[in-house]
Amino acid sequence: MRASAAELTSARTVDRGRERYLRAIGPHRKTFLDDQVKLNDPGASLFLINTLARDGWNGLLHYYEAEVWRLRGRRGDDAAAANAYAAAIAFPDAPPEAWRAHGYALLRSGRREEGRAALGRYLALAPTAPDAAMVRHTLSQ
Fold first, then answer.
1. Phi and psi at residue 62, in whole multiples of 5°?
2. Angle at CA 95, nearest 5°, toward 123 and 72?
3. What are residue 29's phi and psi, to 5 degrees?
4. What would the pLDDT profile of 77-133 be if each residue is shown by its tens digit?
5. What are the residues whose beta carbons fall under 8 Å from the beta carbon of 105, sequence distance 6 or more?
6. What does the CA dihedral 135, 136, 139, 141 come to, rounded to 10 degrees?
7. In this structure, what is the dihedral angle of CA atoms 57, 58, 61, 64, given to the nearest 10 degrees?
8. What is the CATH number of domain 15-140?
9. Where are the alpha helices (DSSP H) in 39-76?
């Protein structure tokens, strides 16, 4: 056991398969986060998101952080959601839905031109989205 312990604590790097794991889980992360947020357990969802963010924040994590705040619906949560949507779109991996949500948050806050631009970006990223017609209608107003 001493030999095994010495081997594990030596300066030698042990391949724990982290990179393989991240590559394998990557394509499913959005689905997993979406399912977690829909469980309507904000505390657990924020804990999970913050734990994943220890490796670094990205657009996907900020988007789901915003979704937790939006769905929680308590006083002050709209501002937290708006801030998280704004943080999400600063990353190249932000899902198109982050642009839509950010656009609507901007429109609600009276920032009409910025909101319209964000909604336009959403349509450029997801022109065949199920809600594309509704977003186009919003832009025509």
1. -65, -40
2. 105
3. -60, -40
4. 899 999 999 999 999 999 999 999 999 999 999 999 999 999 999 999 999 999 999
5. 78, 81, 82, 85, 86, 115
6. -100
7. 130
8. 1.25.40.10
9. 42-52, 59-72
Burial class (CB in 10 A: 0-12, 13-18, 19+), 21: exposed
What residue has token string 């977690």? 36
**pLDDT per residue over 30-77, tens digit each?**
999 999 999 999 999 999 999 999 989 999 999 999 999 999 988 878
Q: Which of 141, 76, 56, 68 is nearest to 103 (CA)?
A: 141
Write down the domain spans for the chain: 15-140
Tokens of 103: 């656009």
Q: Read off the pTM.
A: 0.84
Tokens 């031109």 belong to: 113
